[in-house]
Amino acid sequence: MTIELSDRVKTVPPSGIRRFFEIAEERDDVISLGVGEPDFSTPWAARDAAITSLEQGKTSYTANKGKRELREAIAGYVADRFDLGYDPGEEIIVTAGASEAVDLAFRALVDPGDTVAIAQPSYISYEPGVIFAGGEVCPVPTKEEDEFRLTVDGLEDAGAADADLLVFCYPNNPTGAIMRESDLEPIAAFAREHDLTVLSDEIYAELTYDGEHTSIATLPGMRERTIVFNGFSKAHAMTGLRLGYALGPADVVGAMNRIHQYTMLSAPTTAQYAALEALDSCEDDVREMIDQYDRRRRFVLSRFREIGMDVFEAKGAFYCFPEVPSGWTAEEFAETVLREQGVAVVPGDVFGEGGEGHLRVSYATSLGDLREALTRIEAFLEEQA
Ligand code: PMP
């Protein structure tokens, strides 16, 4: 007997990154520039707070929306750092990673047949999330000539004016692109004109290396139509603790909480104690990690250019997005460089439209490994010449 799976789950293919991990397992000298998570450990003060909470037996559920104290700390943090004003009582929900927050937003806002425009290349979870919620995806490709920023022309060409929701993520995974206030203004005007709800994934906001991050929710008329996602995985190096949050209008956050209270109850309690401490006392650790990412970013960009691979100036997150040399598809190049040189990178196609012909290279790894990986890629290119 076979159990019949739902049509929704059958239409979503397995993640395209998985296959590369399987090839990588065939060698024991692989340097992985493939993963999207910090190589740093969680700052000690946050780990200590988690340990202490366990020692004190603080292992019960919390309020559905997260500990009040943590929501207040998040409200203070986003106000200080990003000029975002949200009420900890009604407008903030703490979730099991930003991933859960994004999923809750789709389930709270998407009806069957609704269209969700997604700026691509993008983080791989948005499209399946829309499909699981019963919606239709309208991909909005971004282009290297625009430095992978979302543009009104791009939105119009893709037909996003007819969409119900618009999702984007800056600083961007996989390109490392950022959008400044002046880039966001026309997007905000487009969203207002066409009555789009905006889902803005700002999980890499702290990892902005040129100027300060601007949230689209701070632009006129946008707070009431935007849901902002952030979390502790990236800047605070807490991926495995699974803690994120969403900020938005009270009715939307309330609707997300209605799903969350039945499906998750509350985000991991131990992680909430760690997060509270992370916001309270780990600013210097975060600063230090950002400085190191920035050093690595500059190294990787200059080395790619030195070995003759074009790469646009990534200014955020911890990825860069070089072009594959002519004559290769991204998939072939990534697979061959992995088999022959033991360097794992991800073909850009995996991240949707606009990603073709590129590789996502994560520099969330040591400078020593980055140096060695670039030397191997250089040797590979020389062999092919
Ligand atoms: N959004 C983006 C753009 C990401 O890159 C990631 C992690 N790779 C997430 C969300 C998910 O983060 P979390 O660990 O908080 O679920």
Automatic annotation (TrEMBL):
PROSITE patterns: AA_TRANSFER_CLASS_1. The keyword NAD does not apply. Keywords: Aminotransferase, Pyridoxal phosphate, Transferase. Its cofactor is pyridoxal 5'-phosphate. It comes from the Archaea. Pfam families: Aminotran_1_2. The keyword Metal-binding does not apply. SUPFAM superfamilies: PLP-dependent transferases. Its EC number is 2.6.1.-. One of its GO terms (biological process) is amino acid metabolic process. One of its GO terms (molecular function) is pyridoxal phosphate binding. Residues 29-377 form the Aminotransferase class I/classII large domain. It is an enzyme of class 2 (transferase). Belongs to the class-I pyridoxal-phosphate-dependent aminotransferase family. Homodimer. This is Aminotransferase. The lineage of its organism: Archaea, Methanobacteriati, Methanobacteriota, Stenosarchaea group, Halobacteria.
